[in-house]
Design goal:
Layout (H helix, E strand, L loop, with lengths): L1 H7 L12 H14 L3 H69 L8 H16 L3 H9 L1 H12 L11
Helix pairs in contact: 2-3
Length: 166
């Protein structure tokens, strides 16, 4: 039975190590506390120290791998966002031109001097919304009264809210 145990255990070699008395006292206290031999504590500390040393030697490699993974993830997300923004821009442009076509039929020709001025004012309003904080722009956009005012302005109503140059 003892021969099998020797085959399974790792090969060892004895070393003599000199420690300061205070260090040996701390090792002995820890060994008593853990109910093991002082040599077990020393081996445990050596194993931990070697593991830390190995980690420190490999930190640049580990950091490079992590950096590559993060960069690949961010690049994939950035490409996805760019594609989504592109599709949203196309959809928005389609809606914009459809609205221009509809508005041109709704305009009170007697009230406005030119459709181009109306379209310019609409772009200015769009930029105003785009430059607002999202929550503020959404709040105004979702306000039914604000939408009614905007529609009335397009139809030529509520003269006080319509630019006199139009």
């Amino acid at each position: 039975m003892k021969e099998n145990a020797n085959r399974d255990s790792p090969k060892t070699q004895k070393r003599s190590v000199v420690f300061p008395i205070e260090t040996l006292e701390q090792i002995e206290k820890l060994a008593v506390k853990k109910n093991v031999f002082a040599s077990d504590i020393i081996r445990e500390f050596v194993d931990k120290g070697l593991a830390i040393n190995s980690y420190e030697e490999n930190i640049d490699t580990i950091t490079a791998i992590i950096h590559q993974e993060i960069e690949a993830s961010i690049k994939a997300l950035a490409n996805r966002l760019a594609g989504m923004i592109n599709r949203i821009t196309i959809i928005s442009a389609a809606g914009y031109y459809a609205n221009i076509a509809i508005v041109s039929d709704l305009i009170d020709k007697d009230r406005y001097s030119s459709f181009e001025k109306i379209e310019r004012l609409a772009r200015k309003r769009a930029l105003t919304y785009a430059n607002m904080k999202s929550s503020e722009a959404l709040s105004i956009f979702m306000n039914d009264e604000e939408m009614k005012k905007a529609i009335d302005e397009i139809k030529g109503g509520m003269a006080s809210n319509v630019d006199s140059d139009v």
